[in-house]
Amino acid sequence: MATEKKKHKNVLVMRLSVLGNVAMAIPVLYPVCKANPDTRFIMLTKRWPASMFHDRPANLKVVDFDVKENYRGLFGLLNLARQLYKMYDIDAVADLHNVSGTWIIDAYLRLRGAQIARLDREKPKRRALVSHRSTDPVTPIHQRYRNVFTQLGCEAPDNFTHLYEGRDWPVSPIVLEKEPGQRWIAISPFSSHRQKAYPLELMEQVIAELSKRENYWIFLMGGGKAEKIALRGIARKYKRVTSMAEVKHKFIDEYALFAKCDLMLTMESANMHLASLVDLQAMTIWGPTSPSCGYLGYNQVVEDDIQLDMDCRPCSITGDKTCKYGDYRCLGNIKPEDIVKRVVEAVEYNAEHKTKATKLAQARRQEQESHDNKE
Fold first, then answer.
1. Fewer CB atoms inside 10 A, N or C side of the chain?
2. Exposure letters 82-101 (e unless 16+ CB within 10 A, then b)
3. Which residues sit opposite 40 in a β-bridge?
4. Is the peptide bond before 18 cis (omega within 30 degrees of 0)?
5. pLDDT digits 0-9 by tens, 119-154
6. For 209-243, how does the pLDDT look when each residue is reduced to its tens digit (9 = 90+)?
7. What pTM value is reported for the model?
């Protein structure tokens, strides 16, 4: 007779860094929480990524911590694990990170009877892909995250739409009203690894060409001092181009902006995944990495991506390797005019079909109102 899987009361979920990887957990974690209402999920992550978790399910608790403050090294992490167990009575762990730091917490909680499930990092498949011994893609990260929860006996449906499903989109005092006929494009030209970034001088050509269209408004995304200075110079040159790096803002402000945008043009970066959280189409420029590495944004499609077919791609899973040719030709050989063409085609196609859908909905409402009045 088969034994029934244990129903867990308190599941610790861990993804400590980086920003994009934490963002990728949200489209998996929110449906898991909703499908398992009798289980409390405690999401452990670092302070800055923790602020991404907006409109979270009632049974999701987000706990942020700072390694440098109180939890450095073996004894610091053991102290963290001890506090988590004491505060939340953890009886299972969904380790979405699977690195040495989380192993310490896993080990402590296992000794106290918790069931542990870890992310499969698929290292052999990753090595085979970047060494070109195989073309088999790495399993998408969202599926591997879901697999961790199913190991614990949790229901893990694949049905995320966006953060604000069934609710009004967020508003922000720093995001203007969008006028009819305007096209809003968010452009994120940077990445955590500079090797993954399209050359800024070429991206400026893209921005310059797009800005010639009077109904196009462009919002440049970035953070950090160097990025802020670079984007400031570009924004000052062209009309209807705004650098969001100049405006102090939080994630909710970005969500409010992205909800009004028609498209995001981005590198393989955290912003690609933030776009997914508000159901925004992301056109991603891929260089040393590729969608086959498993990090395509949730509900984004490869057909929207911009990449060159080269024998040396992908050469890295995360984009942290130096180009063996020294010139990053996988990015430098992408022509700005080709990017502009793809962006304009996508934006105008979306606008046309959105207009048709709006008119059809209005016609149906009018028809229904006329029918109701006759009755």
1. N
2. eebbeebebbbbbbbbbeeb
3. 10
4. yes
5. 999 999 999 999 999 999 999 999 999 999 999 999
6. 999 999 999 999 998 889 999 999 999 999 999 99
7. 0.91
- How far is it, in rounded angstroms, from Cα 262 to Cα 260? 7
Nearest to 206 by CA among 250, 162, 175, 241: 241
CB-based contacts of 81-84 (< 8 A; 24+ apart in sequence): 81/105, 81/108, 81/109, 82/108, 84/12, 84/42, 84/44, 84/109
Specify whether the CB–CB gap between 272 and 282 falls below 8 A: yes
- Which residues on neighbouring strands pair with residue 183, listed in sequence order? 216
Residue ranges and CATH numbers for the domains of the chain are: 10-151 (3.40.50.2000), 183-346 (3.40.50.2000)
DSSP state of 136: P
Burial class (CB in 10 A: 0-12, 13-18, 19+), 166: exposed
- The CA distances from residue 44 to 16, 50, 61, 71, 225, in Å, are 7, 8, 9, 13, 28
Residues 6+ apart with CB under 8 A from 313: 286, 287, 288, 290, 307, 330
